[in-house]
Amino acid sequence: MASDAKPETLLITLTGKDRPGVTSALLATLARAGVEVLDVEQILLRRRLILGLLVTAPRDWRKLRDAIHATADALGMSVEVDRGTGDNRPRPEGRSHVTVIGAPLKAAAMAAVAGRIADSGANIDKIERMARYPVTAIDLHVSGASPEALRAVLSVEAAAQGIDVAVQPANLLRRGMRLIVMDVDSTLIQGEVIEMIAAHAGCEHEVAAITEAAMRGELDFEESLRARVRLLEGVPASVLDEVYDAVELAPGARTLVRTLARLGYRFAIVSGGFTHVTDRLAADLGIHFARANELEIVDGVLTGGIVGDVVDRAGKARALREFAEQAGVSVAATIAIGDGANDLDMLSAAGLGIAYNAKPMVRDAADTAVNVPYLDAILYLLGISREEIEAADAEAGIVTPRPPV
């Protein structure tokens, strides 16, 4: 461009220590020149402001440039004014949200993720921090490659770097009301209920071995469940109350349910465990739907049998579809969370399947995986930041301890 040629646009980048009135002062300067604002981005990082504006260039653009520099000087900030020949180009097709979670999240891991995105021919358009504790979560707005292509390369890189990377299409589903369907044992709660019952029967290790093989997909789930339940014959039914009292929720479970309930989400739990525990969990947490197996009890004692059909791998997927219909949402608007082989059909059927601290075969098959021990980290995949969670809790009188800045 010739040095005296009038540009079509001006890109203004203002940087420096943030204070009230910075943005309004710059916009007032632009207002006096009568320009149009075509695009604007503002970032605040450790009280340092980066403000970018793309505006139309007036006839006397040099006069505006000088006025912008004078405004920046008065604010004690730095500014650059770049001339251009047009508006922003439209973003390429194929838009995704890439959520990166680490504890810690090292620069090398972020560099590797950014490199794989570039290798895919995609571009990072925007970066937002979703959380800084107890994990670091960063959301990348990416365009120029399909979510499927990004997921394929980033899942490999995530495993190599020891971080979680979730890739989702950037569409309206991420913002709409959805149905969350969760597994229970080792997902919503810590540990396996059947093993807790087995401890009272003196066969905990035998039951745990069968459970582990079933979760790895080495045994048919129904067959393994019936074999484990037979070992519980003779256990007093009162033990079920003791087990429920000993159940510990996964860290962040109440925060996850509480936060999404405020947004109108619906919840379901689907378990290969037992109704005596899941029904009480649902009532305690305000969960809308629950399905699990019913232990047979005669004269106050477990018989070692199960009443009715077993909720197995296929049964979990069937329950997800039925609950979606009852909740009035499409299956595409469902999110399934699980950890074992019997969750695979449910994870596949859902609009978004999340493997939570799952076995390797489950992580490989799911849409995405979360391997940090905080269930509420799933909120970051939905575009909800830790700051928003805490603000909503504070309004409800729930105080969350904050780490030092």
How is this structure best described in words?
- Helices cover 39% and strands 27% of the residues.
- It is α/β, with parallel strands linked by helices.
- The chain folds into 3 domains: 9-84, 2-Layer Sandwich (Alpha-Beta Plaits), CATH 3.30.70.260; 95-172, Alpha-Beta Plaits, CATH 3.30.70; 179-373, 3-Layer(aba) Sandwich (Rossmann fold), CATH 3.40.50.1000.
- The chain has a 7-stranded mixed beta sheet, with helices on both faces.
- The longest helix has 15 residues, at 61-75.
- Distance between the terminal alpha carbons, to the nearest Å? 47 Å
Query: Per DSSP, what share of the residues sits in E-state strands of 2 or more residues?
Result: 25-35%
Count the DSSP helices: 15
The figure for the number of domains is 3
What class, by secondary structure content? alpha/beta
CATH second-level architecture of the largest domain:
3-Layer(aba) Sandwich
Assign a percent range to the helix content.
25-40%
